[in-house]
Design a protein that fits this description.
The structure holds 2 protein chains of 2 kinds. Chain A is α+β, with helices and mostly antiparallel strands. Chain A has 5 helices and 5 strands. Chain A has 2 domains: about 80 residues, Ubiquitin-like (UB roll); about 70 residues, [2Fe-2S]-binding domain (DNA polymerase, domain 1), CATH 1.10.150.120. In chain A, strands 2-1-5-3-4 form a 5-stranded mixed β-sheet, with helices on one face. In chain B, the strands form 4 sheets. Chain B has a 5-stranded antiparallel β-sheet with strand order 4-5-10-6-7, with helices on both faces. The chains are: A alpha+beta, B alpha+beta. The complex binds flavin-adenine dinucleotide and FE2/S2 (inorganic) cluster (FES) (2 copies). The site of flavin-adenine dinucleotide has 30 residues of chain B, from strand 2, helix 7, helix 8 and strand 10. Chain A: InterPro entries: 2Fe-2S-bd, 2Fe-2S-bd_dom_sf, 2Fe-2S_ferredoxin-like_sf, 2Fe-2S_ferredoxin-type, Beta-grasp_dom_sf, Diverse_Oxidoreductases.
């Protein structure tokens, strides 16, 4: 059947079988291979993407269920050629080694910061608890998210200061 | 690579449309909500529906809130929505306790209350929580609505009172002023299904237990409840000894099976201990709420 899914802001229309999973739609039909495909059983979180701004495990969502909806993948995190604060945090804090879990981790982290700009370590660990990393021991992932939180807070404050500066 | 067998896909626009689609496609059709139980089963070919009817657009099934003297939980309410709702936390902390330990935050974004109850997995956490608070399930079919007490809803593993051609639309839970509730689970690792779990709700009146509700999951308790222990508690003063004895009765009455999560004796031990603990916490919360009320009066 024909579906139209908006991925990273761009609508894609494709003819797909109803049994096609979202993860394979993204990887095999749209060539967006940043979304990884791991356990296939909704346990590892490598396949996490945003569906209507909420993280979901794309190995357990049908592509046809996304017809008319919006999906964001890791490819959609950067804006105007600039990496998202979460991506920068992972780079700065060595938040990845092999990188297999990283796209899913970053999308869940982005959602967390959108809802709680200053999460403590416990909150971060709880939020990524459905996602497995076999390399980092999670320590640097937590640091990366904290780095992003601190950076965004700094930027927001600087932005406000600048606006106030022009007003006075 | 796990791929479901071929099926046709239909998206329902309303409850009546979903019912019409179920009627048109017959017993080989199945509704899909979050899909987090159904799709894994279809990938393993344990389920092979010929038609899937997607109910995710049915906003009328996403209602969550107090209506009169009841909490109403729509079948399509996501786990995350139940967990985030302050009214639910205030009246039924049992649901927040349970939701915190169901799967993980990302799965909870997608899985639904109705899907959990209809899946009727013998280890489903919400089945025990809704059994403890004695909810009523509202089922809609071609001939209209009918209501089924939650303790008659589950007929056995993976079997419910929802007949082919019908939909679970919502759960109704009576508000019990001054009651306290709690849920606790033992799992092998974060986000896993329970080795055993228990939920309880207590309403106290004049220093004695006026009403006790106890739910159990993963330990072969019939209808996810512990009626023997509830009966024992009713009319008694709350306290450590009574709660330990209720735990002992519940453990004796359930029927756990040995599997990769543990042997029978261990699960029975957990059932008794968890019942004791949730009764203690539920009583504490009931006392806290009674205090609140007096302070407010
Ligand atoms: C990794 C993982 C971990 C999990 N851990 C836990 C856990 O610890 N504890 C726990 O309790 N659960 C756990 N679950 C299960 C989860 O709670 C359920 O999978 C999920 O909530 C089921 O809801 P759903 O909306 O996804 O149902 P679906 O998969 O869409 O449906 C399940 C069944 O219910 C039927 N159905 C759905 N909605 C209706 C309706 N309104 N009327 C009639 N029939 C309906 C479907 O036809 C299907 O047969 C886990 C799941 C995963 C993937
Ligand atoms: S591939 Fe989806 S959770 Fe592992
Ligand atoms: S970086 Fe290798 S799995 Fe996380």
């Amino acid at each position: 059947m024909q579906i139209t899914v908006t991925v990273n802001g761009q609508p894609y229309t494709r003819d797909v079988e109803p049994r096609l999973l979202l993860v394979h739609f993204l990887r095999d039909h749209l060539a967006l291979t940043g979304t990884h495909w791991g356990c296939d059983t909704s346990n590892c979180g490598a396949c996490v993407v945003h569906l209507d701004a909420t993280p979901v495990k794309s190995c357990t969502v049908l592509a046809v269920m996304c017809d008319g909806h919006e999906v964001t993948t890791v490819e959609g995190l950067e804006r105007d050629g600039e990496l998202d604060a979460v991506q920068k945090g992972f780079a700065e804090c060595h938040g990845l080694q092999c990188g297999f879990c990283t796209p899913g981790m970053m999308l869940t982290a982005r959602w967390l910061l959108d809802n709680d700009p200053d999460p403590d370590e416990g909150r971060i660990r709880e939020t990524i608890s459905g996602q497995l990393c076999r390399c980092t021991g999670y320590e640097n992932i937590v640091r990366a998210v904290r780095w992003a939180a601190g950076h965004e807070a700094g930027r927001a404050a600087a932005g406000e200061g600048a606006r106030e500066g022009t007003r006075t | 690579m796990q791929v479901p067998a071929r099926f046709e896909y239909e998206r329902a626009q309303s409850v009546s449309h979903a019912l019409a689609l179920l009627d048109r496609h017959g017993p080989e059709s199945r509704v899909i909500a979050g899909g987090h139980s159904l799709l894994p089963m279809m990938k393993l070919r344990l389920a092979r529906p010929e038609v899937l009817i997607d109910i995710n657009d049915l906003a009328e099934l996403s209602f969550l809130g107090v209506e009169g003297d009841e909490l109403v939980v729509g079948a399509l309410v996501r786990h995350a929505q139940l967990l985030a709702d302050p009214t639910v936390g205030r009246f039924f902390p049992i649901f927040h306790d349970a939701e915190r330990v169901i799967a993980d935050p990302v799965v909870r974004n997608r899985g639904t209350v109705g899907g959990s109850l209809c899946q009727a997995d013998p280890s489903e956490d919400l089945s025990a929580a809704f059994a403890a608070v004695r909810a009523t399930a509202v089922i809609q079919g071609p001939d209209g609505e009918r209501e089924v007490p939650i303790r008659e809803f589950h007929r056995g593993p993976y079997e419910t009172a929802v007949e082919p051609g019908e939909l679970l639309t919502r759960l109704r839970v009576p508000l019990r002023p001054g009651a306290g509730s709690a849920y606790e689970k033992v799992e092998r690792r974060v986000g896993d299904w329970p080795v055993a779990a228990a939920g309880a709700q207590l309403r106290l009146d004049g220093g004695v237990i006026a009403e006790a509700g106890i739910g159990l999951t993963a330990v072969g308790a019939e209808h996810f409840a512990a009626p023997g222990a509830e009966e024992y508690l009713t009319g008694r003063a709350p306290g450590e000894e009574a709660f330990a004895e209720a735990g002992r009765i519940a453990a004796e009455d359930c029927n756990p099976q040995a599997d990769q999560r543990g042997p029978v004796a261990y699960k029975r031990h957990l059932a008794g201990e968890l019942v004791r603990r949730v009764l203690t916490r539920a009583a504490g919360r009931a006392a806290g709420r009674a205090g609140d009320r007096q302070a407010g009066e």
